[in-house]
Amino acid sequence: MAKILLVEDHEEIWDFLSRRLKRRGYEVILAHDGEAGVRQARAGQPDVILLDMNLPVLDGWSAARALKAGADTRSIPIIALTAHAMSGDRDKAIQAGCDDYHPKPVDFSKLLSQISTALGETAQTG
Question: Which residues cross the membrane (predicted)?
Answer without folding.
Answer: none
